Amino acid sequence: MADSGTMTAAMTGPRGPKPKRAFNRTNIMIYGTLIVVALYYALPLYVMIVTSLKGLPEIQMGNIFAPPMEITFEPWVKAWAQACTGINCDGLSRGFWNSVRILIPSLIISVAVASVNGYALSMWKFKGSEVFFGILMIGAFIPYQIMLYPIVILLREAGLYGSLTGLVLVHVAFGMPINTLLFRNYFASIPEELFKAARVDGAGFWAIFFRIMLPMSLPIFVVSLIIQVTGIWNDFLFGVTYISSPDRYPMTVQLNNIVNSVQGVKEYNVNMAATLLTGLVPLVIYFASGKLFVRGIAAGAVKG
Amino acid sequence: MALSDASDVTAQVGQGTPARKPTRIFKNLSSKIASLPMVFTALVIFVGGTVWTIVYSFTSSGLLPRLKWVGLDQYERLWSSRKWMVSIENLAVYGICSLILTLVIGFTLAALLDRKVRGEGMLRTIFLYPFALSFIVTGLVWQWILNPQLGLQNVVRGMGWESFAFDPMNNSKIVMFGLLIAGLWQGTGLIMCIMLAGLRGIDEDIWKAARVDGIGTVKTYIRVIIPMMRPVFVTSLVLIGSGIVKLYDLVVAQTSGGPGISSQVPAMYVMTSMFGGQNLGQGFAASTMMLVTVVIILVPWAILEFGGKKRG
Amino acid sequence: MKLTTKLMAFSAIVSASSASAVELEVMHWWTSGGEAAAVGKFAEAWDASGNKWIDGAIAGGGDTARPIMVSRIIGGDPPAAFQFNHGRQAEELIEAGLLLDLTDVAEAEGWADIVNPPNLLDACTVDGRIYCAPVNIHSWQWMWLSNGAYEKAGLPVPTNWTEFSESAGALQDAGITPLAMGGQSWQQNGAFGVISVALAGTEAWLAVNRDKSVDAVMSDEYTRVFEAFGAARSLSEGLNVQDWNQATAAVINDTAGAQIMGDWAQGEFALAGEVAGEDYSCLPGLGEVGVLQTGGDAFYFPVVDDAEITAGQKELAALLLSPPVQVSFNSAKGSLPVRGDVDLTTVNECTQKGLDLLAAGATLPAGETLLSPDTVTQLNDLMTEFWNTPSMTAAEVQSAYADIIADAD
Questions:
Q1: Which chains touch B (3 or more CB pairs under 8 A)?
Q2: What is the ipTM of this complex?
Q3: From B24, B154, B198, C108, which residue has the greatest number of CB atoms within 10 Å?
Q4: Cα B52 versus chain centre, distance
């Protein structure tokens, strides 16, 4: 998978007509639009970053766009290592590894299951497969909070309530609708000749999946990875409901405790720092996954 | 490696015999076994959970789910609640705007990024990063930015446009658009990403052919590329649609449903009933109505979209 | 899971053989600075008794924490103790037999004699059995006034609601928002409750909230309340904030004249270095009716199979109400102790006013001990709509209010 990915990346560049000059009208329009839009996206981030670097008195002066007069990293230190969650004052660091332990199995299993689902649904339909898919699609629209109690009952009956296994299964189940759809529709757009040819060649379900489909679907794996990393990493409700011991709570429980106290002083700078810190893991994934965003793999394969 | 295998296969077969579809039960056994987790999830979690929810919507369950039947009482109360009516109206306004704008912005950004832009990685990450941030705090930041005394209005007035007024958070007529600004900010990045992945799957030759035929870039996108990306648009529609129906965190963080009840949404009605009012039955009745609406919209479309046998 | 069970069984054996230390997981939603410090007092006392406190803090208030606590109970793996507002929120759990009966602890410790006001214990009692341990008193009946704002406007600080209403115009002329009000519905309904006790009097209030009397809602006393609340709407114009403490901040920095908010607001004044009587004033019962609604928090203890944990739960319940713990906890949290026989370490002018009212027995049960959470939610929605819709008339709201009370159980 990896070597074919890099190979294809080298083979094919970005698409579209080649740009002729650096500063033609089209280019100015493209860059102009992108920069303006980027400003809209970056503005709240900018506010968060400058706020996280200010002291509380400066924040209360009320100019949210002003850069900090005196830069302080205190809020970041506090968010990571000192902020109190009830009586435990060790900040976000307390739940970091718990979150990692939840993320990795949930991520691997949910993406694996969803990609196989999508593959089976697009290439190997069987009687009733569309019905199950339809149910999943409707499931995508159910607010998950409604399922809180039925799932508690299910997990209790299965003897999995409170365990990591139970939580991982819940993440897999709730990630399934969107990700299955994602893979199904992607595989459906892969040229049919490829599949037929492989069948004629005697390749079976798994052989076609691993040797043909997987290497051709890097971009969609990236999208699925992005959705799942974000969803699982930021999950608060499932983590805190289906894990029954505070020692194993994910980091979002600490994040929630830092930013969401109802009564008492709001330390806006620490809130911002904690949010940005929590967002770092998905951010790293977004950035790193960019390399996998390659084009034209499917096309390359067909042309041979 | 896989690639060369695949091309070998293609080469061997050439234009030859079309393969027969694996229709027999035993032939498709691997597929069925591989689909077991999906079947289990669909039946046990989604069907099971939904049936459970519907059953309990006919009870007077409060803090705990209990089978004390009250018939249609919960539904009568639901439909006589002004908050619920406001919620539905708001969702319709927000939903239509969000659906159209997210698709347009998402696709446009993806298309622009796909035109050999320098710093694509950086820009893509900027567009996507809002998706990674918890809404409890980003809602607060938008509250600040849209606050007339702290945010945009103040800055624009400071630049000399004294009469500029923009205060969506405190005007019940336009508060949903204040939410929309933040919702688009958070959600368009992912749609852009999915569109980009779709664009990257389209054959380079299409572009060459379009250029040979003298079709302009924009026209090529509209006439050729978008129809080819139909599955990607379907994925995006479901993703955006489910996000709209489930809209909750953003509202809580930004407006708490206010001013008054003017930015209430159905999911918030459900959550407030279930966990604030400790009236599970009422929350389940509301969520059942949401589900019924989704099914009414989704099923005919799904039959059209997926029911037909396009390929085996 | 299995491993943890084994480990727990193992540690239970070890601890049983040593000093019978019990590990208890306690869930609560006290996470802000002062609150966390207060919980720390409980934990210290519990650890000092040779046991171990496992802290399960979930921020976001009851709406966030309650479903998690209920899930744990439904899932069959409950925490050893959890915090609820005392009131009708836990009613169903008690009826379902999921909570530990603390009557023997209460009798041994003589709670019936020491808990003041007695209605706190009533809120824990179902069919004569006691199911919770009240730990503090918070009351809604306060108006906080900025002395600085009144000085700026050249007015004396009002001593009751009538004077306050009369002074509002002059404050607005001086560019000061008379009444700071946050945008969340519970704040607006809470303020309405305070105004109704102050203007309609305790009897009418009890008739509405305890006896669910529709006639009382439609009475002249209450008409006056709805009109006053409607008139107050214009007093908060110009200050748009969501959170209650942003509204308090406006009083602290003298841009707003006053705020109606519970006694927890005093923590904000203290943090800002303000002194009661000098920088700010307080009017319990809006200066009209000197009475406090006594709400607050209580701990509940789910039923578990383990006899050792049950013993620990009862030990903890007794500890929470013991005099030193009551003093240290409530001093840190800024609330009032549930027993009248202890003295807080530091008492300012406002806290003293509250203590005096408690000692005089001028108390009312909290709204949440009389109304179900469902009714409270409906009232929140109605009052927030009233507050934010200038075109809604007091009469309209009054009849809608009567409908909700008629349906209340």
A1: A, C
A2: 0.86
A3: B198
A4: 25
